[in-house]
Amino acid sequence: MTTLVQRWRAHSSLTALAGFAVAAVLLFAVAPAVLSDFRLNLLAKFLCFAIVAVGIGLAWGRGGMLTLGQGVFFGIGAYIMAMHLQMADAARLGNDVPEFMEIAGIRELPSFWTPFASAPVALLGILVLPALIAAALGYGVFKRRVKGAYFAILSQALAAALAILLTGQQAIGGFTGLSDFRAFFGFKLSDPVNRQMLFFIAAGTLLVVVALVRQLMHSRYGELLVAVRDQEERVRFLGYDPANVKIVAYVVAAFFAGVAGALFTPIVGIISPADIGVVPSIAFLIGVAIGGRTTLLGPVLGAIGVAWAQTALSEQFPSGWTYLQGVLFIVVVGFVPAGIAGLWPLLQGLLGNRSRRPADPPAAVVVEALPQPATEKVQSR
Questions:
Q1: What confidence tens digit (pLDDT) does each residue in 72-114 have?
Q2: 189 within 8 A of 183, measured Cβ to Cβ
Q3: Do 56 and 299 touch, CB atoms closer than 8 A?
Q4: What is the pTM of this model?
């Protein structure tokens, strides 16, 4: 039995390595060769969405936490990166404040901008701040056993509150956000080679994120996370605290979202409250649901596919894409809960049942029942 388990694990590891190798070839060799600079930059944007989707797949698909507010952590990482790039451009031009502040009449740099002028501090803030906020929020929510629709509504309310807060802050760009970044850590963003470098960074980050989540899924923690999703009270009875298990998954998902937001800012060239509110948070979730939230690659493929469809179809049907997206989400949730990734096992099962079915039914064999010999009952006196 132990030998069979070891063989299965070795086969699974080899399959995963082959999958990562194919993905690396497609992202680092095929995509730059066949796509134009515009399409490659568009794909880099979609990869940022896929990084967020991987975290949602871990928290929602494996942990059962319907995270409708990932735009909060995505926005934190994005705005920290944008603030650093704005101050770097201002320092390069010899200005005390970024250009949008001069236009708005702000002559003194706000105090909360100052720490992010340093590149190491900005990177540390991108990596740590979303995770810390998620840990504090998760501790307050999961320790009080808030779950289900209540948790989903709370997370969505946080995304809406952050978008409204940023809209009224002229020191962070207001409703127009922050844009017009000239360089990314010394590399000019107008250079196509540097923009291709951003694509490679996003692609490499996505592969690393998928590898980390796969390791978590196949670890003891991954089994415990699924157990908490399915039988939370039984896990608590066995001596584990389900709140701690949920907090870890929620923090990991927030960490991924913050990193994705930081990459999104230089790739797209703008970040605004419209990119981090309720609608983008729901769009992240729709991609995960369509791709397959309980699988590893389903959220990645779903996020990229939905983002590509939105870009392609919204150009032709600007007012109809939102309705199509909603209908697609309803169909997947109602009829294909496992998402697109769940169609392949379903097809395998159907083909397997058809191949095992005999061509001609066997002839019926009639067996005459023979009379059974009477058994004497012996009564002990």
A1: 999 999 999 999 999 999 888 888 888 888 887 888 888 889 8
A2: yes
A3: yes
A4: 0.86
